[in-house]
Design brief:
CATH topology of the largest domain: Rossmann fold
CATH class of the largest domain: Alpha Beta
CATH architecture of the largest domain: 3-Layer(aba) Sandwich
CATH superfamily of the largest domain: P-loop containing nucleotide triphosphate hydrolases
Number of strands: 14
Distance between the termini: 21 Å
Length: 297
Amino acid sequence: MSHLFIDTVSKCYERKHWALRDVSLRMEAGVLGLVGPNGAGKTTLLKMLATLLLPTQGHITWDGQDIVRHLEQLRRVLGYVPQDFGVYPQLTARAFLRYIGELKGLRGSHLQRRVEAVLATVHLETDADRRLKTFSGGMVRRVGIAQALLNEPRLLILDEPTSGLDPAERVSFRETLASLEGERTVIFSTHIISDIEATATRLALLNRGRLIWTGTPEALLTDAAGATWALTVSQAEFNALRAQYRVSSAIPRNGNIEMRVVAPGRPHPKASPTEPTLEEAYLFFQEMEGQTTLAFS
């Protein structure tokens, strides 16, 4: 079984801007959801894992080998879909995949078999001979996943793969991810918690370049127990609470507001504790970043 180890990795850009600070993660086969707001450092970390950026500090190893010193060994088993995935619009999906396969060193009948296999995996067999300029955003995303799977990668990296997709296309992506066979490590970044909830076996929460929590989705819910509150208040009370606490939902009802609040303690005398959703657990750890040390569950 392959192992990916990120050891106290930091990345500094010009003018001493630290995009990542002291991030450590250990990952084996499974699906890791990398979660965080825009600017948290998700894309920077994924680009380092894809050997497109070098760490300023720290080390990343794959099967015990430093990926900076052994770039080609990792690239042979790597599949990568960047956030801004581009295609050649005049090519058909099949022709595009053949072209990418040749760039990856695939040839002849093996290349043909792999192209047909990945088209089937992402459910594009019937559209394979259409030009890519006619594809929807969701279909282009599926082509991106298909090209990443051509070399049967053991490490698959997806940067915001559901960005811009409608709900049906996001469900299709989740189905594709679930259908992948074999032991492989999949890491995908997102800020859409429902995608994580439906696919990830482990989570890593990033905020302001730092890892603030990692573990299973179930452990995140357990660790955030007691931090979500439900109450019904007047409009004036709602405005006051919203100014002090993170509100996760608010529904007007008969002149009042039914709301849920994420807070470490009871935010209002009317508030009753309730079970957190995964999104509320994530919001809680964002709020507590300055007060919570890194937890491994």
